[in-house]
Design goal:
four-stranded antiparallel sheet
């Protein structure tokens, strides 16, 4: 539908707002595999025959850990100056063990959290002054798999394969002039419940009261 600029100007006034401008936004996959030793609460694995081992992951922190450096890249047919940004990630891994205890009952035991730290370099439009934020994208793409494992007392050493999809956003606070108008709250909805009026059933005047 075409916009009537004259009507638009009558309905809205110029306003200044402070917003977070996005300079760049991309996704990046972290994949790694390594042996991790997990500890468990004291005595929790005593007499347990392990039948299944699973793991879960949480991206606890993602932050820059080195100065940015300019890098020239060819994007399409144009040479542009971008920034190589080093991001350090702290990933929490928890192991969940299922098995049977000495009495034959099925039990599930959860390990103490183990931490993995890894660093990667990402090419971004991130000039000086901007802020780089990264978070794990919550979807089925993220995975944690357990390979070979060995048990020793109250600890299990397992080969863990991790895959996390990150959303990386570069932002900077700016002040913009926009055509807008202030919002007002809607009227309150008052829902009054009234006492019901008694409705009498129909009578049988031919029968009662007797004349």
């Amino acid at each position: 539908m075409p916009i009537n600029l004259e009507q638009f100007a009558q309905q809205f006034d110029p306003e200044c707002i402070q917003v977070c401008k996005v300079y760049d936004w991309t996704t990046h996959v972290v994949q790694l595999a390594q042996d991790i030793t997990f500890t468990f609460p004291s005595g929790s694995l005593d007499g347990v025959t392990v039948s299944q081992v699973n793991c879960s992951i949480t991206l606890l922190e993602c932050a820059e850990d080195a100065p940015r450096r300019d890098i020239e890249c060819t994007v399409g047919n144009q040479i542009v100056t971008l920034q190589a940004v080093t991001l350090s990630k702290t990933i929490q891994v928890v192991l969940e063990v299922t098995g049977t205890n000495a009495t034959g009952a099925q039990v599930t035991v959860v390990s103490n959290p183990a931490l993995i730290t890894t660093s990667e370099e990402v090419i971004l439009c991130a000039p000086e002054g901007t802020t780089v934020c990264c978070n794990a994208v919550q979807n089925t793409f993220n995975s944690c798999r357990v390979g070979a494992f060995t048990q020793s007392g109250n600890s299990i050493t397992a080969n863990i394969s991790i895959r996390i999809c990150q959303s990386i956003v570069v932002t900077f606070e700016v002040i913009l002039e926009v055509a807008a108008r202030f919002c007002q709250p809607r009227p309150e909805i008052i829902c009054e419940e009234e006492c019901p009026v008694d409705v009498f059933p129909p009578q049988c005047p031919a029968v009662f009261p007797a004349m």
